[in-house]
Design brief:
Helices cover about 55% and strands about 20% of the residues. It has about 220 residues and is α/β, with parallel strands linked by helices. Helix 4 crosses helix 5. The structure holds erythose-4-phosphate. Erythose-4-phosphate binds next to helix 7.
Amino acid sequence: MKFFIDSGNLDDITRMVPLGIVDGVTTNPSLMAKEKGDPREIIRKICQVVKGPVSAEVIATDVAGMIAQGRELASIDPHVVVKVPFTREGVEATKVLSGEGHRVNVTLIFSPTQALIAAKVGAAYVSPFVGRLDDIATDGMALIEQIVEIYGHYDFRTEILVASVRHPMHIVEAARMGADVCTCPPSVIEACFKHPLTDIGLEKFLKDWHKSQEAKG
Ligand code: E4P
C-alpha cells in the first residue's frame, strides 16, 4: 500500500520524505488555504521534493472551468494529479481530462456508486473520505470494503485512495482490505512511530549492554 501525505505544508512534507515511505501527496483547498505564498509555487516545490503523484484540486465548479483549471494545474509539473470533486460537472470534466491523458483524482467520494462512476470515466484515483463518514456515525471503512469488492470484479485502473484518515487503525484496515493508497496527515504517520514496548525494549537493550561494558572494566 502506498502512503501519501495529506498536507500542503512543504516543511512537514520535506521532513517526512527521508523516511522513505512517502509515495505522494494530496492537497485540498482547505489545506492550501492554510499555507502562505503562491499555491502554484507550493505545488511545484512539493512535486520536486516528493517526486511522486501530488494531487492539486480545482476550485471551479462548472465543467469548462474545471477543465481549464485542470489543464493549468497539470502544466505545473508532470507529477501533478488533478483533483476534481465528485459532482455531475466533475464527472464530465474527469472524462475530458483523463481522455487528454491527465491523471485525475476524484474526491469527496462517500458512496460506492460514486466510486463506480468515477472509475468508468477514467479516474486515476478515487478518494473516499472515511473519517468524515465516521464523524456522522457511518462506518467509513465499510465503504472501502465495498469499493475494493466492486473494483475487484472489473479491469478498472482506478486506484483506491483512502482519504480523511484520522488514526493508525484506518491505515491498518485499509491495508488489510488491499486499498492502493492511504493519504495521512503527518500526525497520523508520526503516531505509527510510537510504541511504548519499542521504547521500553530499546531502553533495556542499551542499559544491559552498557552495564556489561562497565563490568568488563
Ligand atoms: C483527501 O484527499 C483530503 O485532502 C483529506 O483526506 C480530507 O480529510 P479531512 O476529512 O480530515 O479534512
